[in-house]
Amino acid sequence: MKEKLEALRQEAIAQLNDVADVQTLNDLRVKYLGKKGALTEILRGMGALSAEERPLIGQVANDVRGAIEGLIESKQQAFQKAETEQRLQAEKVDVTLPGRKMTQGGTHPLNKVIQEIEEIFIGMGYHIAEGPEVETDYYNFEALNLPKNHPARDMQDTFYITEELLMRTQTSPVQIRTMESMQGKVPVKIICPGKVYRRDDDDATHSYQFYQIEGLVIGENIRMSDLKGTLLQFVREMFGPNTQIRLRPSFFPFTEPSAEVDVTCARCGGSGCRVCKHTGWLEILGCGMVHPEVLRKGGYDPEVHSGFAFGMGPDRIAMLKYGIDDIRHFYGGDVAFLKQFARM
């Protein structure tokens, strides 16, 4: 048996030295050291040996196994090293090549305008308030002096989820929620930026989803002149120091009196052009003094407190500011369009 083991060692070493790939190496491992391999077959005959011979043959068998396993491991390491070297050569990077220019993004024009509006009003002492986009009928309509079946509800074609839940049609519900949270305390000075939803057809000036920014001030002895001064300060910071405003009487259920606000055309300075349809004026927002019933719903006594509110569309302001003629450009994801504003 000793001679068989020595012959097996020589045969295995000779074949392992000629191995050229990993698959062949694995096949030889199974051939010589597997459960049904050559070494196992020889060792099955140890039962016929005497008690004195078994330890000697066992030692020889261990030496043979060790020699074969050592050579297999050495070959395996050599193959792994060669494979690593090959991968390094194939995947190497020339560090002397110039770097690739990273594409730098920019802020979306709508976000730019919203941030600018926020900064202007924060500079005037306002706070940012937020509220849910899925609203209740109470906060979106009833608390704003629009009870059920009120004809003015037709002014806003609404996405209803249930009879009492809807996608908010304006950010005005945030005003009511803020008034309730203040529990009658003054002053209140907030703006409420956010998305709103209406069942409009998409065209150059309308979208079923757009942005709105509401403003609310409540205190004692708040007058229409305070509203006008606030809006004049805002438009001059947004459009330039020579911008003028005019207020035209209008109607909103939640303000009384109410007004539409026009600004002098930023393109022609008020002299008249195609953008302003040769009037010299452009409409940008609606406003008014908070209706007494809305004050009561918010927890304020209209005999003691008064306030004003305004609402504007950042989409429209961005269109005026940047000379954009189609609101759909903001939501189309056209990179060529958005790149124009990357460094503004």
TrEMBL record:
It comes from the Bacteria. One of its GO terms (molecular function) is phenylalanine-tRNA ligase activity. Residues 111-320 form the Aminoacyl-transfer RNA synthetases class-II family profile domain. Its main location: cytoplasm. It is an enzyme of class 6 (ligase). One of its GO terms (cellular component) is cytoplasm. Keywords: Aminoacyl-tRNA synthetase, ATP-binding, Cytoplasm, Ligase, Magnesium, Metal-binding, Nucleotide-binding, Protein biosynthesis. It is found in: Cytoplasm. Mg(2+) binds at E256. InterPro entries: aa-tRNA-synth_II, aa-tRNA-synth_II/BPL/LPL, Phe-tRNA-synth_IIc_asu, Phe-tRNA_ligase_II_N, Phe_tRNA_ligase_alpha1_bac, Phenylalanyl-tRNA_Synthase, tRNA-bd_arm. Pfam families: Phe_tRNA-synt_N, tRNA-synt_2d. One of its GO terms (biological process) is phenylalanyl-tRNA aminoacylation. CDD domains: PheRS_alpha_core (cd00496). Tetramer of two alpha and two beta subunits. HAMAP family: Phe_tRNA_synth_alpha1. Belongs to the class-II aminoacyl-tRNA synthetase family. Phe-tRNA synthetase alpha subunit type 1 subfamily. This is Phenylalanine--tRNA ligase alpha subunit. The lineage of its organism: Bacteria, Bacillati, Bacillota, Bacilli, Bacillales. The gene is pheS.
